[in-house]
Design brief:
The protein has 401 residues and is an all-beta fold. It is built from 1 helix and 28 strands. A hairpin with a 5-residue loop joins strand 24 and strand 25. The longest helix has 4 residues.
């Protein structure tokens, strides 16, 4: 869920002064509410006779915009800039011609000097989310960015405008686009063609084509870290609940956790899921450059990123499954630690007849109690077997209808 609004900013390059006016935008809907108040700009004046022509670029810092969360849930704020004037160019480099403009934006709690705006703070046509480095302020905490604004919190954003000292008298209109993105939850309607749902720069789920047999509303909700069980004394870095409960994918979906703003031991980061009684190991691939941990999942639960290394047995802990109930409890048997591995799991009945072969890469690391044709097998004891790294693993699972 994203809410976008536009505020018209009129910038005038003149030789005279001008009275500044105020822009106020408010929104309240569902549990989200916010106010944007621009108290010092809709028009910016640059006096040509005051420009230092010995320098190629003139800069002015302006525009205190106050952003307040008046709703119930946290959100991120992002900004982008565009122009309605055909001859005007918005650039991300030092302007050297008339009609070229470069904009900067930083979230901070005090008026910054011109040198506090860096190249990472340039506003461009592409909308950039608040957790990207465009909102960074050197040597200041990200808590003063447009990142994760809690209910009742207020943030301020300041702007800098660069123009060439060769600029002529002109009248130009710009549009500031403001996007509010809830940082606690998101939901998206996904069809059998696939799609993705994410809480921006926190967690993303990529669902491939054919993973769903019908259209589903996929929802992600953040879980409070202090409200979920610890693992070996360690608190989760982050945790999210995925719904609808009991959903099983026909093809594995890619789950990606982002930890860029967390102080963690990257060498210990692993993904786990909660089975209702304990944390179950999945593992995951840590990318230290992008600050992400990714894996593949086949069913929904609460998933968490926890700094605990676990040596998996690869055998499912479920001894009995009840696939016919479809209540989200013991519907499937999960082969912990096999996610993303090139392994085939063979399922046999007690006579030795193979009833199903599961390619983990194509179908995921679970058995949902069905045969090769998708039919739920008869009640009874079934034997599983697979080979990994030259070792044969086997065991039994009981199916109860």
């Amino acid at each position: 869920m994203k809410i976008r609004i536009k505020v018209i900013l009129i910038y005038i390059i003149l030789l005279s002064t001008q009275i500044l006016s105020q822009v106020k935008v408010s929104y309240v809907g569902e549990r989200i509410g916010f106010e944007f108040i621009s108290s010092s700009f809709t028009e910016v004046i640059i006096k040509k006779e005051e420009l230092d022509n010995t320098k190629p670029v003139a800069s002015v810092v302006f525009g205190t915009m106050t952003i307040k969360n008046v709703g119930e849930v946290r959100f991120d704020v992002s900004l982008s800039i565009a122009t309605g004037t055909k001859t005007t160019q918005i650039v991300n480099f030092e302007p050297n011609q008339d009609k070229q403009y470069r904009f900067f934006a930083v979230f901070t709690d005090k008026l910054p000097d011109k040198d506090k705006f860096g190249t990472e703070d340039v506003l461009i046509l592409k909308n950039v989310v608040a957790t990207d480095e465009i909102f960074a302020v050197n040597n200041e905490s990200f808590k003063v960015k447009g990142f994760d604004i809690s209910s009742g919190e207020t943030r301020c954003v300041f702007f800098r405008l660069d123009v060439s000292t060769n600029i002529k008298v002109s009248y130009t209109t710009f549009y500031l686009s403001i996007t509010v993105i809830p940082s606690e939850y998101n939901s998206v309607l996904i069809t059998p063609s696939g799609g993705e749902v994410e809480i921006v720069n926190r967690v993303k789920l990529e669902i491939p084509q054919g993973a769903l047999v019908e259209e589903k509303e996929i929802r992600i909700v953040e879980k409070q870290k202090n409200m979920i069980p610890k693992l070996d004394g360690e608190t989760a870095v982050c945790a999210y609940e995925f719904s609808p409960k009991g959903l099983v994918f026909r093809k594995p979906a890619k789950l990606i956790f982002n930890y860029r703003y967390e102080t963690v031991n990257e060498d210990k980061l692993c993904i786990y899921y909660w089975d209702g009684y304990e944390w179950r190991y999945i593992g995951g691939k840590v990318d230290k450059q992008s600050k992400t941990v990714s894996t593949y999942i086949s069913h929904f639960s609460i998933y968490a990123l926890i700094p605990v290394i676990y040596t998996p047995t690869y055998k499912p802990k479920e001894k009995i499954i009840t696939p016919a109930t479809k209540d989200g409890i013991n519907d499937v048997a999960t082969f912990d630690g096999l996610s993303g591995k090139d392994v085939n799991i063979n399922i046999f009945d007690i006579t030795g007849r193979r009833v199903k072969t599961i390619s983990v890469l194509e179908k995921g690391n679970i058995w949902d109690g069905t045969d090769e044709y998708g039919n739920i097998v008869e009640s009874g004891v079934y034997v599983y077997q697979f080979e990994l790294d030259g070792k044969i693993y086997s065991g039994s699972i009981t199916v109860a209808k």
